[in-house]
Amino acid sequence: MSWDRYAAGVYARHQAGTSSQRRCAEFVRRAIYAGGVEVRKTLDAKDYGPALLPLLLCFWLAGCTSQTPAPEKSASDFYHYYLPAFDDPDKTAYSSEEMQHYVAADTLKRLATIEKIEEQEIYLSDYFFYGQDYDSNWVSALKVGKPVAFLGGVVVPVSVGKENGAYKALSVFMRRENGLWKIYRVRDDTDDYEQPIFDAGRLTGAQEHARKLPAFK
């Protein structure tokens, strides 16, 4: 059984109210589901006892192993690594050990595929901070917020410092991969835009366009 206790805890904390809503059974079930396990409905939260025994065992076993850094810590570590290294193609190469440590494999594969397409317009600025250049002096302005549960993973709000003391607000989507929290998607909240690297139609169209260029004749 695979159960993400962190995602369950994040969901529970964000749903907590200031007073009872008399819906404990529902909220317990939803928190468990946010962690990746579905349990049958009951009228009262206390009746989840038998269904929770496997999860308690999973929780106990997880406590015996080394702790995975929280997603916000992983996001912060990534941007503290990535932003100062932006001008170093070796450090930011999708095949580098550091990038593979912080970013989901499928995302790196997609970015590498798109980057090789001539005249592609799927993403025209850096995918991870939505800019085309970066000054390492701005890194000190980086801010990373608390994660919010999302589809079995989390969304971490990140504010990237930029020129004139301004910020670029990002939503950084993360999920567990090989026991680590990794970035798989980034959205620009400041400009309400997301670069469509997961759009299969855009990818196919860009590849077809590239094939028609003189270099392919």
Describe the protein's architecture and organization.
The chain is α+β, with helices and mostly antiparallel strands. It is 36% helix and 16% strand. The protein contains 7 helices and 5 strands. It has helices at residues 5-15, 24-34, 49-63, 71-82, 97-102, 105-115, 200-211; strands at residues 143-144, 148-150, 153-161, 167-177, 180-188. Strands 1, 2, 3, 4 and 5 form a 5-stranded antiparallel β-sheet that branches. Helix 1 packs antiparallel against helix 2. The protein is globular and about 70 Å long. The N and C termini lie far apart (53 Å).
Write the layout of secondary structure elements.
Elements: H1 5-15, H2 24-34, H3 49-63, H4 71-82, H5 97-102, H6 105-115, E1 143-144, E2 148-150, E3 153-161, E4 167-177, E5 180-188, H7 200-211
Antiparallel strand pairs: 1-3, 2-3, 3-4, 4-5
Tell me the number of strands: 5
Identify low-pLDDT runs.
60-66
- What's the number of helices? 7
Approximately what portion of the residues adopt beta-strand conformation? 15-25%
Quaternary organization: single chain
Helix content: 25-40%
Largest sheet at a glance?
A: 5 strands, antiparallel
Query: What structural class should be given to the helix and strand makeup?
Result: alpha+beta
Q: What's the average pLDDT?
A: 79
Order of helices and strands: HHHHHHEEEEEH
Radius of gyration: 21 Å
Global shape: globular
The N- and C-terminal alpha carbons lie at a distance of 53 Å
Short account of what is shown:
The chain is α+β, with helices and mostly antiparallel strands.
